[in-house]
């Protein structure tokens, strides 16, 4: 029987894509993070009101101008850990973080935090392999992303989607500025390899790019730069590299080794599919229930 949350305080969600108009918000990953959470809270019957909430859930990609003191504020740190400091953390009553490694640093700053990974809403697909290599992601300040720079020239069938790529890569690699979010599962499944990378501070502090979960849940295979804690969390289901030469060799190996790709993907897919939006929303609601009488 569905639980009645109608009397619970409305939750509002804010993300850094709320504050940017260029490029359009839909090209930012946290736009979909917010949209999917909002949709799942509503599906559970939990009230959502972004304009006049009683509870604020801040999806931290960067600080917001001011945290309203009259709201019960929850922080979910999913990127840019170098911007996290005690003065920021002190504005929030509850802190979630996607990095076990960084939670230890938060504790040293004098705050408690709970591990909660960014969920995925991607579902398994079985598509014909029409690409060798795919990358979906924006450039970094109109500059080449690390994994694409590390790959360098490649003879394989490559497609890249994201904002700012035109002119940085061979025209035949360019897929467009945007790939429809609802179709990403099919894209990831149709590639032999999906490339991924991380911002320097996220890699250092153990923040796994949620794109990895999206790819694995879809049935895709990922090659990424290494991140502390990723092998343990995803049971070594992601192929990793440290140098451009290693990346070239890793690509060459897995382009040909279908069996190894399938084994690693199946292992990662099982883990990724457990990271659902419903489970994340229920975890947050569980916390709200525990402090309901104090609101």
Q: Tell me what portion of residues adopts beta-strand conformation.
A: 15-25%
Spell out the CATH superfamily of the largest domain. Glycogen Phosphorylase B
Which parts are unreliable, with pLDDT below 50 for 5 consecutive residues or more?
A: none
CATH topology of the largest domain: Rossmann fold
Q: If you average the pLDDT, what whole number results?
A: 94
Number of domains: 2
Specify the biggest β-sheet: 6 strands, parallel
Please tell me how large the radius of gyration is.
Answer: 20 Å
Number of strands: 11
Order of helices and strands: EHEEHEHEEHEEHEHHEHEHHH
Share of helical residues: 25-40%
CATH class of the largest domain: Alpha Beta
Protein name: Tetratricopeptide repeat domain with UbiE methylase
Keywords: Methyltransferase, Transferase
Pfam family, one: Glyco_trans_1_2
Organism: Candidatus Sulfobium mesophilum
């Amino acid at each position: 029987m569905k639980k009645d949350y109608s009397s619970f305080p409305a939750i509002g969600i804010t993300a850094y894509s709320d504050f940017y108009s260029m490029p359009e918000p839909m090209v930012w990953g946290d736009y979909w993070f917010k949209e999917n959470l909002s949709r799942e809270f509503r599906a559970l019957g939990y009230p959502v009101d972004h304009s006049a909430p009683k509870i604020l859930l801040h999806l931290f990609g960067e600080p917001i101008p001011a945290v309203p003191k009259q709201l019960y504020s929850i922080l979910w740190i999913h990127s840019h850990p170098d911007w996290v400091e005690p003065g920021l953390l002190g504005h929030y009553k509850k802190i979630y973080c996607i990095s076990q490694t960084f939670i230890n640093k938060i504790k040293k700053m004098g705050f408690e935090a709970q591990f909660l990974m960014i969920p995925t809403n991607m579902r398994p697909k079985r598509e014909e392999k029409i690409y060798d290599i795919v990358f979906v992601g924006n450039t970094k300040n109109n500059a080449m992303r690390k994994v694409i720079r590390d790959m360098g020239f490649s003879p394989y069938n490559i497609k890249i989607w994201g904002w700012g790529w035109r002119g940085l890569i061979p025209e035949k690699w360019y897929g467009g500025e945007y790939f429809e979010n609802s179709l990403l599962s099919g894209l990831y499944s149709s590639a032999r390899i999906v490339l991924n990378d991380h911002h320097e501070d996220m890699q250092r502090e153990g923040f796994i790019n949620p794109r990895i979960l999206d790819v694995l849940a879809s049935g895709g295979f990922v090659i990424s730069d290494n991140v502390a804690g990723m092998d343990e969390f995803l049971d070594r289901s992601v192929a990793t590299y440290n140098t451009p030469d290693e990346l070239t060799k890793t690509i060459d190996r897995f382009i040909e080794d279908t069996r190894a790709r399938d084994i690693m993907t199946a292992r990662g897919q099982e883990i990724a599919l457990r990271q659902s939006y419903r489970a994340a929303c229920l975890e947050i609601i569980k916390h709200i229930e525990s402090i309901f009488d104090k609101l």
